[in-house]
Amino acid sequence: MAADIRNSQFATRNSPQVSVLVPCYNQARHIEGVIRAVLEQTHPAHEIIIVDDASTDESARVIGGFPVTLLQHERNLGPAAARNTALEVSTGDVVLYIDADACPQPDLIETLLRAYSAVDAQTFPSLAGIGGRGIELHRENLPDRWRALHARQDFGETYRKNVPFLFGLCASYRRSVLEKMGGFDASFPLNAGEDFELGYRLRRAGYELHYEPHAVVEHHHADTEKSLMRNQSNWYYWSYIAKRKNHAHPWTLWAGTLRRLFTDTLGDLFLRQDWELARLDLVIFRVKMNALYNAAQQK
Fold first, then answer.
1. Residues 77 and 199 in one domain
2. Phi, psi at 152, each rounded to 5°
3. pLDDT band at 15 (very low <50, low <70, confident <90, very high)
């Protein structure tokens, strides 16, 4: 029997209020579409809070043209700090983080609230949040095809409990839990590893994270080979740091990287028969291993 969300410790209102929080840095090209998509949700947001993290483009001007709360950092602090800034002023029962280049599908909030309402009463007190998935829209060039295949931001096609973390581009949390845990670790300066670290910290504290595959955002990110290498290096470096800070086993990143060398490369060679993807697999493997080695040298 699914628990009625109104009778849980989560909220006393007939329907939980959802604050949509968006960290933004130099996303003038995409932020308007993201805001419009949030404003057009089938279940309206309680509030929309956008933190401009000292953008050098026209992001703040674009955001200022909409009925949202705009907060601005005087200097760039990174997405973890921007998410915390938004959290501090939010008032909803649920805080829903989406990235400034990730357009939510029209029923995103409705789908997440339905997932919260389906959590049984015994599990609910230990539930920290429910996340969704990102669908990559750009697949035309080689780096974008590689990212869509080998750096997917999802955990598959079925609902899952106890996932290790929630993907930062589409992640909702019970505000009370996130505040209790101190939010994101602002020492993570990039869009890399900060969601991983929060997931580890929440699970060490006894909380669960769930994954709802029908909660979808459309990711408008595009890569060059150089930017793909940089992003993969950052993610593996800071994921290693996240594991070590939470007394997890960083060796699993080494093992996973070696496993992916074989599974990804062989799949690209023999299943997809794509030699360019296979070449890029080898390039990215070296990037990942270098990042892990550099992280391991940090004290």
1. yes
2. -65, 145
3. confident
User: Do 234 and 218 share a structural domain?
Assistant: no
Q: How, if at all, do strands 47-52 and 18-24 pair?
A: parallel
What SS3 class is residue 120?
coil
Answer yes or no: do 289 and 185 share one domain.
no
Which residues lie below 8 Å from residue 230, measured CB to CB, with a gap of 6+?
none
Question: Is 166 in contact with 178 (CB distance < 8 Å)?
Answer: no
Q: How much is the pLDDT for 6?
A: 38
Of the candidates 169, 174, 175, the one whose C-alpha atom is nearest the C-alpha of residue 216 is: 169
- 239, exposed or middle or buried, with CB in 10 Å at 0-12, 13-18, 19+? buried
- Strands 102-104 and 69-72: what pairing? unpaired
Q: What do you get for the CA distance between the two ends of the chain, in Å?
A: 49
Q: Are 41 and 96 in contact (CB under 8 A)?
A: no
User: What is the reported pTM?
Assistant: 0.93
- DSSP state string for 11-53: -SSSS--EEEEEEESS-TTTHHHHHHHHHT-SS--SEEEEEE-
Token pair listed for 21? 């929080």
Which residue range is the domain that position 33 belongs to? Answer: 5-223
Which tens digit of pLDDT belongs to each residue from 183-224? 999 999 999 999 999 999 999 999 999 999 999 999 999 999
Does the pLDDT value for residue 13 go beyond 70?
A: no
| Distance in angstroms (rounded) separating the CA atoms of residues 288 and 230 | 10
Nearest to 150 by CA among 160, 161, 162, 136: 136
Average pLDDT over residues 280-284: 97
